[in-house]
Amino acid sequence: MTFKNGTIIITTLLIMTIFSLGVLGQEFPVTITDDLDQEVTLEQKPEKIISISPNMTEVLFVIGAGENVIGVTTFANYPKEALEVEKIGTITEPNIEKIITLEPDLVLASSVNKMETVKRLKELGIVVAGYEANNVNKAIENIKKIGLLTGNQDITDKLVTEMYIKIAEMRNLVDKLLEENNRPKVFFEIWNDPLFTAGSNTFIDDLIQIAGGENLGRLAEGQWPQYNLEKLLIEDPDVYISTPHSAEMQVSVESIKNRERFQSINAIKNNRIYIIDQDIVNRPSPRLVKGLALMIKAIYPELEEEVDSILNR
């Protein structure tokens, strides 16, 4: 696929998405069907919003709804403005009483939250919208919907357009390399002992695929499978990616190199070990563009300068 044709396809998909959401004008009331297959209706623009998921928090601040966010979880660490917002508990154990006291017009949840939390809030008459994204396209679609729900359509449309264009440009760079090269085998470490990875039907898997890698986690069963060391040695990844928090003590390139029996792995022998911030590649937020860039630079270091140029434009 040439870049020109790829851009046409992406732009067409974007236009179709806009029309399918009915965002020809930002008016209230607004009704959206969320990923719980529930209709969410807001009679007017929400002035008080609570996010019980870090990726939802990131979306809200980027699309211009940050000033309306009155509550976030203790895991909300980006952007820095989110650190100043009142905390309503953790992702898995939010303080329901505190949420009720804050009287939100809208609560945003995602797949990291417990279903019983969402059900309880709805039973108490609170408007909750829940979203899940296990791939890049779904993540962007969700950003569009949140922009509509919060009355920030114009900013969101511009943001999403920029995201689509940058993704298309980076994907074009990768596609050109794949015309003459096989996909490198990539192992993404979620946790080191026992060893866990990202399997199929996950956001990380989709990023690796778009970035031109072959995710070895797809060979295992489940979304977050435990991976046997013997299997890892047999599969012999070309690229090994981990995060700073995949162990009780923060991991490093050197600590991975020094693990028992790892020295025979192709990625370790060739010094193809990369440490990536897990929040950037595991949260379906506007930062997914940066996450894709980091994945591409790990898998194809020769594209670093071109990718950075696209990312920083």
Note down, in words, how this protein is organized.
- By secondary structure, this protein is α/β, with parallel strands linked by helices.
- The chain has two domains: 3-158, Rossmann fold (3-Layer(aba) Sandwich), CATH 3.40.50; 182-311, 3-Layer(aba) Sandwich (Rossmann fold).
- Helix content is 42%, strand content 14%.
- The protein is built from 13 helices and eleven strands.
- It has helices at residues 3-20, 54-62, 96-102, 115-123, 136-149, 153-178, 203-210, 229-235, 253-257, 266-269, 278-282, 288-299, 304-311, and strands at 30-33, 39-42, 49-51, 69-71, 106-110, 128-131, 185-192, 195-197, 214-215, 239-242, 273-275.
- The strands form three sheets. Strands 7, 8, 9, 10 and 11 form a five-stranded mixed sheet that branches. A four-stranded parallel sheet has the order 4-3-5-6, sandwiched between helices. The chain has a two-stranded antiparallel sheet with strand order 1-2.
- A hairpin with a 5-residue loop joins β1 and β2 (39-42).
- α1 runs antiparallel to α6 (153-178), α5 (136-149) packs antiparallel against α6 and α6 (153-178) runs antiparallel to α13 (304-311).
